[in-house]
Amino acid sequence: MLSRSRLVVRTLPISRRVLPKTSGSIRYVSSNNKEVKDDSDSKFDSIDEFNKHRVQYNFGHNFNELEDLEPITNPDVKREVETKQQNSINLDDEMMQNVNTMLEQDPRLAGLKPGSAKYKEILHYLHEEFQKQQQKERKRWEFNERMRGVLLGAVAVVGILSAHQIFMNYEYLKNKIMANITYKGVDESKAKDMASPELNTKKASNLKDALSNELHESILETVQDSKQVPGLYVFGSHNSQKLPARIPFFDNMLLKDVYVSGDYLAAVNDAGKVYELYKGLQEPQLVNLPFKVQSIGASGPFLYFLTNKGQVNYIPRGDQKVTNFLPTSTRNWIGLLKQTKYATLSTQDPIKQMSTGKDHLTLLTTQGKILIVNSNPTNPENYGQFGPAYSPYDKSKAIPFNQPIDITLLNNEIVIRKDGTKFIQPRVFSSIAAGQHFNIASDQSGNIWTWGKNLSGQCGVELSETTELRPIPKVVLTKEDFKRICRSSLDANPNTEEFSVREVFAGDESSYILLNYADGRQKEQDIVLSFGNGINGQLGGNRYLHVCSKPQVMKSLLGLTEYDEVRGKSVNIGIKDLNVGNKHLFVTLDTVGEMKDVLAVGENEHGQFGNGKRVKSSKPLQIPKLIEPEDVENNRGSMNKLVKKINDIVTNRLSMLHDHKLPSGANVEQVIVASDDASAIFYRRK
């Protein structure tokens, strides 16, 4: 509706003189639609008479509102408006009549004379009640409308969210619906919900059926008494067994070292002889070597031997074809050249420790010096593990094959005397380990050095674009760092000098440090630090991490105690040994007595835990004992005893023999080895 037009009002000038006579006549229409006639012959004798006949005029419009003009220009609209107004008046009158009629028919007015005082009083009360009732109904109606609005709003929100979820999960919903149509009639499970545990829990019969299928007769025939007959147990990817199974060839044989990976296995017996077993051989084959071997390792296409004289020799693996292998030539006692079947790495000092990666070896001499060797004759993957002289950023220099590389800056340090003069002295290292493409080492001062690939934080350095590859060895952890990391895990406030590094270990992309802490005021405590790739749980921190560059304490191994009857007190359970594979590891505890408990952690996809399952674990867990003859005697069909033994790992947990005397009189210990997706248990002379 248009607002009222602003009217320009003009009043004829006021004057006491007689208005002048004008010629002609002017016709005006006033705001009240009256025609005003101004006769030129009219005269006013005074102001009072003029004011009496004065009329106000609206200039620009001759109406106040558009509604005033509408009935004039459109008579039909005028009649329609009048009809609506009349109908509205009639409705109001009819409603009032209905209300009055309803009130007058109230029983409380019965018997009263209309128009009397009592009648009027009661009628007044009835009107008030009616008004209150109308107000209540109005409030109820308003409340219902509000609730209706809230409900409609909630429905709208749910609808929007549902539409969003359908849009975002369209492919999943489509596949699920189509799967129900495509695979209609397939019974997925009898367990319909988690409220029925008897249907959702695997029973012993499931494990019994699985063991019956896996432990066929040829495996059961190899079962021997583990305390009476030494031998070699293998499980994992090598033989696809989820429980330790014996290789009959090694029965009653003591071993020094075992390497197993995929289809390949190599073992060193107590006499220093080497046996190989790989696809195509029915039983292990002796490798004719003129020297005694202490330990073995595989890298690239070669098998490396650390001899009892500190030499490192190598031959092509039996399952690999190497065309450019050049064996070493030696002279016999009369001076004639003789061709050998092996080659030797040229080192000045004897080697006391050897660790193998994918394309490299890390060697530690008896003088505490570190050497790096390229084991790939064709195209080694270089991530900085060969040191700064062969940086991965410099492709111009070829890495020498099977030639020890001395990292000068690593093996030497600058020392400042009291008088300010400087001199160079050899740096002494105590432990080394080679990962897939990186190295970790500890020196005699307790510092941890790393170099090589750092994509998962295995070098202990925060991952960034500049730290992915680290060809220069650097100190990443000191005793001060050990104090800071372990402070919250120890009862007392630790001192830096109370920490010592026992040994370092490496998986494919993970690092481990075995520390010893002893302050003299409390029990001695062994601590395991881990960092690097933990996506398979191999860091043992109860988490699965892609990248972990900050060392974390394996807290599940802290605070373990037992009662020592000899000492007559409770003592901490230490750690006897760690054995690290590519993605899993075993922790052998130093428990009191002849038996040493074993814990497993990490990847278990191939059954390398030896617990009859394929489930990985991010925290150390116990594994069942070895299969004994009494577990399968007269019970091979049902496997009841074996199922009970595997399920009850609290009382039937795996423990390694330590300083155990065999019927032959030899004192031996059992050793568990973690390798590439496989594991082994063997007997070693104590």
From TrEMBL:
Keywords: Membrane, Transmembrane, Transmembrane helix
Gene Ontology biological process terms, A to Z: mitochondrial respiratory chain complex III assembly
UniProt RCC repeat ranges: 446-517
One protein family per Pfam: RCC1_2
Keyword flag Kinase: no
Key word Magnesium present: no
Any one Gene Ontology cellular component term annotated for this protein: mitochondrial inner membrane
Transmembrane segments: 149-168
Alphabetized PANTHER family for the sequence: PROTEIN FMP25, MITOCHONDRIAL
Stated name of the protein: Protein FMP25, mitochondrial
Source species of the chain: [Candida] subhashii
